[in-house]
Structure formats: C-alpha cells, structure tokens
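Section 3.1 - Work completed
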Amino acid sequence: MFNAFGRVLDRVLGIETVYAHCDIPCGIYDPHGAQIAALTVLRLNQLAGNLAMPAPGDKGAMDAYGNTIARYIATKEAHAELVKHEVRIIWGDYIRPEHVDKYPDLHSSVFGIMKLGSRNKQNMDLKAAEELVAAVQKFAELFWATKGVQTRRGPSNQTVGGEIVYPA
C-alpha cells in the first residue's frame, strides 16, 4: 500500500530516482575495486584456459563443461564491465582539468582501459587480460599521484597472483 502511494506521490511531485556512485560528491574514490575486477578477469581467463574439454559422447561431462565455461565467461564479462564502471566513476566524478594538465597520460590511460575492458568482454584472451591488469595498475598510480600520494606495488595475495598498487 505504501509503495503504491509512494509511486503516485513521485509522479505527482515529479520525483525521479537517480543512481550514482555519489554525485554529492562524497570525495571517496579508490581504484582498488577496478584492480580487483581486472585481476578477476585475468583469473577467469586462466581458469578457462586450463579447463579440459571432455571426450566426445560423454554427455554428463559435456554438460558440466558447458556450464563451467558459461559461468567463467559470464563472470569475466561482468568484471570487465566493472573495471570500466569503476574507472568511469573516478574519471567523471573525480578527475579535474588540473589533474589532466599535470598528468597528460590520464586521457589515454582511461581510453585504453575502456578499449581493453571491451576487448576482454568480447574474447577469452589471456594477453588482453594481462594488458588490462597493467593498464589499471598504471591508472591507479596516476590516480594516487593526483592526490600527492606515493604508491607501492605489493602482491595481490590472490590465487591469480600479480600485484596491486597501494597508497604508501
């Protein structure tokens, strides 16, 4: 009952629902989520590459293989999109002209991540996944530099291996 009343009230008052990371702005931005998502894309490529194709005629094994590879692909694509989303939020809500003036690689870094994110959604490509991780790490270093924060690279401590860029 209250939901119906609320919807009517929203229509009468012209209230629209909006979604954003935070257009207040809250000032809380961190490329860590993009780095974890990029490592996930890499890990799903590793898992898919190591998945053994079952022998023809083994329907149960083929069904299990199809289910597993479909889940790997869906998760990989979702995390490639998450990389793009996280970087777009920082780019659109945090990066200012003075950041680009001081760090002219920001434009090409974001553009490259967007293209690599799409490439990783389109294909199972270990090399593209590794390039995505490297591009997001570079972006993380640039992001923290805009805040005047030194960074360090440390082990991700994830099954995928690799490193994460941390503020020092």
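Second construct:
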Amino acid sequence: MAISITTRHLRALLAVAEAGSTAGAARSLHLSQPSVSVAVQEVEAILGQALFQRLPARGLVPTAFGLRKLAEARALASALSAFEAGDGQAGDPAGHVAFGYFSTLGPQYVPAVLRRMAAAYPKVSVSIHEGDLGELNRLLAAGRIELALTYDVELGAGIAAEAVGELRPYALLPAKHALAARAAVTVADLAAEPFILVDLPLSREFLLSPFRAAGIEPRVAYRAPSLEMVFGLVANGLGVSLLVTRREGDLAYDGRRVTRRPLADCALRQGVVIARAEGIAPTAPARALAECIRAEIAGG
C-alpha cells in the first residue's frame, strides 16, 4: 500500500527544519528520534528528492527543494490548524510561527510583541530564537525561522526586509563621569576614554563606524558580548560606550548607575526591520506576528 503524507509527516518535517536536527525535533514533539527520522525519510520517498542535507557544525539544513516544500508545509499546517480551530472568526490565523530576534534588540520589544500576540491571536503559538545578526541571517536562509526582528545590517542575498523603526546611536557613560555634565558628546570625546565595545558579529563593525568616519579609533578596554555586561562595565567606571539598542532604566544589575547622552556629531541611524526569506509568502501566523511587531514598535 502506498504511503500518503499525513499530519504526522508535516509536523515532523517542520520540527526538524526548526530544530536543525532530528534529536531536537524529537524533543519538541515528545517522540523518539527514530520515529522522526522515519517520518522525514517517508516524505522524501514520496516526493522523490532529499529535503535535508547534513552540514558540519550546522546539523540538518534544507536543500533548495526542501526549502520550497518547507514553505508549502508551513502553509498546509497553518490551514489545518485554522480548520481544527473552527470555533473562531472566519479567517482567524491559527498554527505556529518560528520567530528570531537580535540578542540585544529582543528584550526591548519581543516580550511586548508576544503579549500582543497572545491577546489578539490566541490560536497562534510562537517559538523564539535568539541570535546575533549573522546567526539570524543563517536561520532565515536555512528555513529554521520564518521571521526575524533585527537591524538593517548586511542582511544578504535572499533576505527581504520591511523597515519598522529607526534608532539613533547614543553615548553610555558612568553616572558621575565628567562627560555626563554635557548636553551632548562627540565621538572624539568617547575615543579619548577607555571604550567598552559590544562584541557581536556585524554589530561591532557598525558601532565602530562613527569613529572610523571621523578618522579615529576608540581605545577598546573591554569587549562585551551582551548589553547587560556593557551596562555593568560602564556603570562601574571602567569605560564609556556607544550603543544603538535602548534599555529602560539607568541601573546595572549591581545597582550602579549609567547615564545617556546624544551624539552631537553623528548622523548615523540604524534601521529596525522585519526580515524574512525572499520569494516565500509568509503564512497567516507570520503575517499576524508581523502586524503585532509593527503595532508595538510604532506605538513604542
């Protein structure tokens, strides 16, 4: 008897794509790894082509054919979820969306976006994936996430972006620093002090660009992988920093204070975007999530 594709196959396929491995998919589905592997193999046998290839250090990555079928599988799963949730309003989205966000940008917006989603679209589940700018590009290209909230920095070929906001760089200073007495500071002022650099791929180059445009280099004292560590180092008087991402409050984790000042000589602006794989129509859950992102950032 010929095997037909079932909802079990669809769920296994989508889980493997998001997790990047059969082991991760098995954990999310509460199934055994062999049963997930068999489900994927059965789909590949039915379609007559490989859906995934195994790459060193990257796990299972969809083939070009797999990416096309993955988009179709997401659309089918979304339609099935909407059908199963038949007690809602006609056209209400239902199903699942995998969502990525830039590690320093996410805390400012993502919790409130998810609150909006839970209130407006209770039949949509959202899984969240944190990464740096380069990692989000890879997750989108590999089909592991459907949307990403990120900065408009080297998104690369095959990634479509919708601008939803714009942020201005600012100086972060110890609360009692001499520069804190000024209404604004310059990049030359910052370059004369020990500098705390956010050390994330692509981010570091962007944050150094105002200095290089002025023909100067900051004296990097510490490289920190997170916004919270930058706040802590600056609050303890170990240096100054230049940031784009906003964070409410002026306290570091240890209770010491920072202060912010605008940059007087920097016209640089950083775009905030919703990114997705180009040429693939977003599912109804993804469109609902994008709507909530727009509303949150515009309202914020």
